């Protein structure tokens, strides 16, 4: 099995992709690249079994409805336009689930800068679908939405304070901690890059979560949640320890 992890930025710069091959008893990192284009992601997806995309796959349904209504006329403001109403506009159902399960608040695709990456993601999903890939925002197809910080939290690893020029030491410590928790993960020639770039590191984590999703070891929306997840997207949270990713490994 091959899994891809993509840390998607608004542009090619700062976009990273990792490819992991899963073999009996070990997982080998076959590729880690930076400054990745949409075309390269689409090409790589053809040989991958599951792709973890670190980017929101959609927008909150209430936000989409608000923009549509506002474009046509005037909106109906619930709760007097207070914080609860604004929160429903800003956060997707899956964001609230992640917040409840991990106490981590994902960035709002409707109100934070991550929306720029989501614009790109919408186009990328269209390209993948046109290429014949099974794009299901619930995660049931080849693509699954991932959130590295939440995954690291689930695996008992540090998930804050490792990004930025002044956090190189914390970043290096986190890579060391991941390697200790998953001694079967072979970074090989890409270890230096993963230690140097948190984008590269996040792409590796995204590929690990893709494996969890592919083997039924990540959360999936229930029937009620699936209604919104079809358009909003669904963040797959690992439900097993890291060691569980090796089970059912296929050559």
UniProtKB/TrEMBL annotation:
InterPro entries for this protein: DUF429 (IPR007362)
Pfam families associated with the record: DUF429 (PF04250)
Domain of life according to the entry: Bacteria
UniProt protein name: DUF429 domain-containing protein
